[in-house]
Amino acid sequence: MLTVSNKAVSFLKATKLTMGAPPDVGVRIQRETIDEDRGALGLSLALRENPAPSDQSFEQDGLRIFVEDSLMEPLDGRTLDIREDDDGAAIVLR
């Protein structure tokens, strides 16, 4: 199962607040692109009131998280985290 670090939860909550989203809106992790040649999977995050019918959903520290069903296997054992450097913060998978 996908894990979300405490830093990522805090970052996503702050981002929702900055965007003026209602507190009960969730964050959906969804497939964006696939680069078959490199074996790369592109993901995007979106704010959603409710999960799609086939999404897997869970809550962590008050943040509702929805994961596109087709991503459950590729994200199994991974952690959504924050990387901070001179350019600022970025969401990463570890």
Short characterization:
The protein has 94 residues and is α/β, with parallel strands linked by helices. The chain contains 2 helices and 7 strands.
Describe the structure.
- The protein is α/β, with parallel strands linked by helices.
- It is built from 2 helices and 7 strands.
- It has one domain: Hypothetical Protein Aq_1857, Chain: A (Sandwich), CATH 2.60.300.12.
- The strands form 2 sheets. Strands 3-2-5-4 form a 4-stranded mixed sheet.
- Strand 2 (26-35) and strand 3 (40-48) form a beta hairpin.
Total domains = 1
Biggest sheet strand line-up: 3-2-5-4
Helix content: 10-25%
Protein structure class: alpha/beta
At CATH level 2, the architecture is Sandwich
CATH topology: Hypothetical Protein Aq_1857, Chain: A
Order of helical and strand elements: EHEEEEHEE
User: How many strands?
Assistant: 7
Query: Distance between the terminal alpha carbons, to the nearest Å?
Result: 13 Å
Rg result: 13 Å
* Main sheet record: 4 strands, mixed
Which shape, going by the Cα principal axes?
Answer: globular
β-sheet strand percentage: over 45%
**Mean residue pLDDT:** 90
Q: From the structure provided, what is the oligomeric state, counting identical versus distinct chains?
A: single chain
CATH superfamily: HesB-like domain
Number of helices: 2
Could you name the CATH class? Answer: Mainly Beta
